[in-house]
What we know:
This protein is α/β, with parallel strands linked by helices and 332 residues long. The protein has a domain at 3-194 and 233-260: Rossmann fold (3-Layer(aba) Sandwich), CATH 3.40.50. Helix content is 36%, strand content 14%. It is built from 10 helices and 12 strands. It has a 7-stranded parallel β-sheet, sandwiched between helices. The chain has a 3-stranded mixed β-sheet with strand order 8-9-11. Helix 1 (10-21) links the parallel strand 1 and strand 2. The protein is globular and about 60 Å long.
Amino acid sequence: MVKILLTAAFIAAHVLDILLEHGFETVVTVRSEEKGKRIIEAHPHTPKEKLSYVIVKDVAQEGAFEEAVKSNPPFDYVLHTASPFHFNVQDPVKDFLDPAIKGTTGILKAVKAHAPTVKRVVITSSFAAIVNPKQHPTVYSEKDWNPVTWEEAMDHANVYRASKTFAEKAAWDFVANEKPNFNVATINPPLVLGPIVHYLNSLEAVNTSNQRLRNIIQGQMKEKIAPTGTFLWVDVRDVALAHVRAIEVNEAGGQRFFVTAGYFSNKDLVDITRQSHPELESKLPPKDSPSDLPENIYGIDNQRSQQVLGLKYRTLQQSVSDSIDSLLAVGA
Length: 332
């Protein structure tokens, strides 16, 4: 039986469902007993030996994962999805940089010291670690890195992207310098849309990426559509499958995967909402609202994710419609 340690975040709930479908024995890290119990209760038909949890209260704490990685039988793989993504920045280092960087290096150190059977650690990175907002290349691919500096990271507008960049670089540096028994693969998605998992998400605590859909269906863009920001997206279920395929496919080791389904604008989200949920028409901006998607936008190369991991991406229409259904189900 192959055994997995999964560190939890929004994406992790979808990763968990795929791991269980594929027959993996899975231990999930959670911050509280209450959250762990909710996960178990949400999978009533899963045998208890196939799904359990361990509490890691603060991923940035020194030694946070040391007990979590110890297991009998031992772990074969680790999927590390936990990292902060929100816009409530008080202290860039404490709120973002430490949890992202120390959380990533901390789990790698713990695996090397206490889990010698682990073959691969798959890390959720981000397009934030690829994008160069100052000078977009002609085509983005896995070879690109965000050139952000530590000084620039002190600006609240840059700190999220910096945290993902520094955390991923720290992971590759760890493997190069420490030469552990395992290799690493990273998954680098842009904006992640897709259905929320009701047992983990309240409407107030909906993940940051889906907040724009919540805002649309609650009428917060009725007067004016907000700027889109980054024009790339992917469905959370495709990101989740990428994580699982990255442990199932041998060639995935040592590789980055730029996981994206393509382009979108907030205007596209509004148009799909109008089409898929006509009952929300009164909350939506006028049909002739302009789109801010640039005509000459950078290209994208996601071939590696398709060829190595075998991903077939969901459409924006399906992702938005399913996301809205899940938001309405929790009271949006």
